[in-house]
């Protein structure tokens, strides 16, 4: 049995995909009315419209109703993860798989670090990589990284969470997987700004390349293995998020580049991550110019035109 805590688009898509394979899945939403609607209609039209829930998917009332699962997927926003775990201490001692991307503003930790701090007896893991909820829910082929420092637990989770259409690649480098997934959102905002401001695809390609260098620099300084960053959870996710209009972070950047107010209805993890990473990079003396500019823009300290000009005015250097 698998439990999914969080019934937004990604959580619901994972629950549908796993239940479609015949696995018993419990899905929880924080909204009582939403839970009742899903239970009655067997759909989640709020986030994943038009896809019926498989028979083995059950809506539950409380996170504590999911503790009998072999794995618990935590599909809550990154900045809410620490608070959520503090509110539900009975999750400690279980195999907890983070399905969010970012860096916690308060602690500077990634998802598995937040889990380890809040639930010291749990087995933390992270599921991340290039994926859109709609593709997963529709049963389209998707490949992700499942990273867990405990190699034996990672093997078991890989078998448990893989389906005919959801292919998981295993890693013990949780730091590489989570920081790759976090930083790509920051670069995606920058890529969106480039396109929104009309700077062109050549500029976006350059931005993605230099952004990947920043991503690698930061993650390596936090203990990641460079090889991990060239895989699905780093480069693969970066390519998808910087080139698709389905990416919330990319769309956020496009709005900024066009001088428009971004859509506030959706969580854009790259905003908080940019500020958290910029703070950490400054403390560690890491050169992160793209991240610094995005942090300045999203915090209102610099406008887009000045940020672009500042990046273009940087001294010439070897690649």
UniProtKB/TrEMBL annotation:
UniProtKB keywords: Cytoplasm, Lipid biosynthesis, Lipid metabolism, NAD, NADP, Nucleotide-binding, Oxidoreductase, Phospholipid biosynthesis, Phospholipid metabolism
EC number: 1.1.1.94
Reaction catalysed by this enzyme: sn-glycerol 3-phosphate + NAD(+) = dihydroxyacetone phosphate + NADH + H(+); sn-glycerol 3-phosphate + NADP(+) = dihydroxyacetone phosphate + NADPH + H(+)
Gene Ontology BP terms: carbohydrate metabolic process; glycerol-3-phosphate biosynthetic process; glycerol-3-phosphate catabolic process; glycerophospholipid metabolic process; phospholipid biosynthetic process
Binding-site list for substrate: 101, 248-249
Occurrences of domain Glycerol-3-phosphate dehydrogenase NAD-dependent C-terminal (ranges): 173-308
Residue numbers binding NAD(+): 6-11, 133, 248
Chain positions recorded as NADPH binding sites: 9-10, 30, 47, 101, 133, 248, 269
PROSITE patterns, A to Z: NAD_G3PDH (PS00957)
Subcellular location: Cytoplasm
Pathway the protein acts in: Membrane lipid metabolism; glycerophospholipid metabolism
Domain (Glycerol-3-phosphate dehydrogenase NAD-dependent N-terminal): residue spans on this chain: 2-152
Function, in words: Catalyzes the reduction of the glycolytic intermediate dihydroxyacetone phosphate (DHAP) to sn-glycerol 3-phosphate (G3P), the key precursor for phospholipid synthesis.
Name of the protein in its database record: Glycerol-3-phosphate dehydrogenase [NAD(P)+]
Species whose genome carries this gene: Actibacterium pelagium
Lineage: Bacteria, Pseudomonadati, Pseudomonadota, Alphaproteobacteria, Rhodobacterales
Originating gene: gpsA
């Amino acid at each position: 049995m698998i439990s999914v805590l969080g019934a937004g688009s990604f959580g619901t898509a994972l629950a549908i995909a796993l239940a479609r394979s015949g696995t018993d899945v419990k899905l929880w939403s924080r909204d009582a009315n939403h839970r009742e609607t899903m239970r009655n209609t067997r759909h989640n039209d709020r986030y994943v419209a038009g896809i019926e829930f498989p028979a083995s998917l059950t809506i539950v009332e409380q996170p504590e109703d999911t503790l009998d699962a072999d794995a618990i997927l935590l599909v809550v926003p990154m900045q809410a993860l620490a608070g959520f775990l503090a509110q539900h201490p009975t999750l400690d001692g279980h195999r907890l798989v983070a399905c969010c991307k970012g860096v916690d503003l308060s602690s500077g930790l990634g998802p598995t670090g937040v889990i380890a701090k809040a639930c010291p007896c749990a087995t933390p893991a992270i599921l991340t990589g290039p994926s859109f909820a709609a593709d997963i829910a529709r049963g389209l082929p998707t490949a992700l990284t499942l990273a867990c420092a405990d190699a034996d637990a990672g093997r078991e989770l890989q078998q448990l969470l893989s389906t005919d259409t959801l292919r998981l690649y295993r890693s013990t480098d949780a730091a590489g997987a989570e920081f790759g997934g976090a930083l790509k959102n920051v670069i995606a905002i920058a890529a969106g700004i480039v396109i929104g401001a009309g700077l062109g695809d050549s500029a976006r390609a350059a931005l993605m390349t230099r952004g990947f260098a920043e991503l690698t620099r930061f993650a390596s300084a936090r203990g990641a293995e460079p090889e991990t960053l060239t895989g699905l959870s780093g480069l693969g996710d970066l390519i998808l998020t910087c080139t698709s209009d389905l990416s919330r972070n990319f769309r956020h950047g496009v709005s900024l580049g066009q001088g428009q107010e971004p859509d506030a209805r959706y969580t854009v993890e790259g905003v908080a991550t940019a500020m958290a990473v910029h703070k950490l990079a400054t403390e560690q003396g890491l050169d992160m110019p793209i991240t610094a500019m995005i942090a300045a823009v999203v915090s209102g300290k610099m406008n887009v035109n000045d940020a672009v000009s500042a990046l273009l005015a940087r001294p010439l250097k070897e690649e």
